[in-house]
Amino acid sequence: MVLVHGLGGSVESDYMRATTVGLLHAGFNVARVDLRGAGASGETCSLLYHAGRTEDLRAVLRALANQPEAATGRNGEPRLALMGFSLGGSMTIKLMGEPHEGLPIFAAVAVSAPLDLTVGSAYLNQMGFGLYEKFLVAGLKRQALQPGPRGTLRVSPQEHEAIRAARDLAEFDDALTAPRNGWQDAKEYYAVNSSGPYLPKITEPTLVIHSVDDPMIPASPYQAIDWEALEANGPIQRRITRRGGHVGFHERGRELPWYVGQAVRFLWSVS
Asked: 53, 52, 100, 55: which is closest to 78 by C-alpha?
């Protein structure tokens, strides 16, 4: 199992650690991934991750598949599954809908994933008087402005000034993410990399978990999807709840979030 964190997170995020505990107890091998520039990878990466950078995940999966100790199926071939949270969940859906280049991925799970980045950015700006967004943007600014490999600067003086002036997520993406990766602005970046359009292209079993009361990711893109058609004609399964928050789903009397058990049962059912 390969776990992918969300925006502003790392391998040490609570949800990554809790999920690791549950998966290990269920008998899975687990690899936690720091996306480019996040966590410990900030010491070696000059670039930063974004919602569409699935080529990095493919590189990680390829490296894991080639390890001698990789988990194998009955035919002796390596078997990998992917589980992403929030932005990492969006990346997971996007990757599952793209060509896999021969990677042995048998399943995936996406938790609290933004399916439409444009709608998600506007929603985040409105919810909680923008406090959630301010918290996220402050973390992204710290991440972008910290020194890169061997103390090098990760951004130019012009980018530095624009990043410091950014007041919301769209302005941050206008200042750094879009121009650094060849898009005209945040609007184009969001349109190109939203994961919702990739759902009908998925060919391996994929579980999508989301809560309607998520304070950071809007429910409207989920409500606009014909899930019955997706589930009838493809390998998609869903767990859409009324309550659960954002990568929350805590249960009274249980140490681990509800989505951990859902992921384990799903993975065992399709493995």
From this structure: 100
pLDDT, tens digit (0-9, with 9 covering 90-100), for 69-97: 666 666 667 899 999 999 999 999 999 99
Positive or negative, the CA dihedral 66, 71, 72, 73 is negative
Burial pattern 3-41, b for ≥16 Cβ within 10 A else e, equals bbbbbbbbbebebbebbbebbeebebebbbbbbbbbbeb
Q: What is the pLDDT of residues 116-173, one digit of tens each?
A: 999 999 998 888 777 888 988 998 898 888 877 766 767 788 888 999 999 999 999 9
Q: 97 near 199, Cβ under 8 Å? A: yes
Domain CATH number, residue 58: 3.40.50.1820
183 touches 174 (CB < 8 A)? no
Considering the domain architecture, whether residues 182 and 89 belong to the same structural domain is answered as no
Amino acid at 15: Y
Using CB atoms within 10 Å of the CB of residue 259, give its burial: 0 to 12 exposed, 13 to 18 middle, 19+ buried.
Answer: buried
Pairing of strands 2-4, 206-211: unpaired
What residue spans of the chain are helical by DSSP H? 14-25, 54-65, 87-96, 117-126, 131-145, 157-165, 169-172, 178-180, 186-193, 220-223, 227-233, 258-270
**Separation between Cα atoms, residue 253 and residue 251, nearest integer Å:** 6
The residue type at 60 = V
Please state the domain count of the chain: 2
Claim to verify: residue 233 and residue 258 sit in the same structural domain: yes
Position 28, amino acid:
F
0.70 surpassed by pTM:
yes
199 and 182, same structural domain? no
The answer to whether 44 and 35 are in contact (CB under 8 A) is no
